[in-house]
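Morning, I've got a small favour to ask if you have a moment. I owe you a coffee for this, so here goes:
>
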Amino acid sequence: MYPLRMIVGSSRHGKVLPQEDRVTGGATEREDRRVRLMAVAHLTASAAEIRAAVGTTVMQRTVTNRLFQGKLRVRSLVACILLTPNH
């Protein structure tokens, strides 16, 4: 697929930067590592639970991005309908 790009500048005539050249938000390597370790240790934890367990202020989108970069999926709650004997 096409690489992600971001337009930088005050008008529509800004320059385009590749994703790897962007300024990162605020999550440190330590927070990123904690997100990945939490995801591996607790396979059923959702992104919101991982965010709460990290212990610092980490944006929900940061958790999702770090899991994606680490080839881990974001977990979401799944509604499960139990089958009855009539089924």
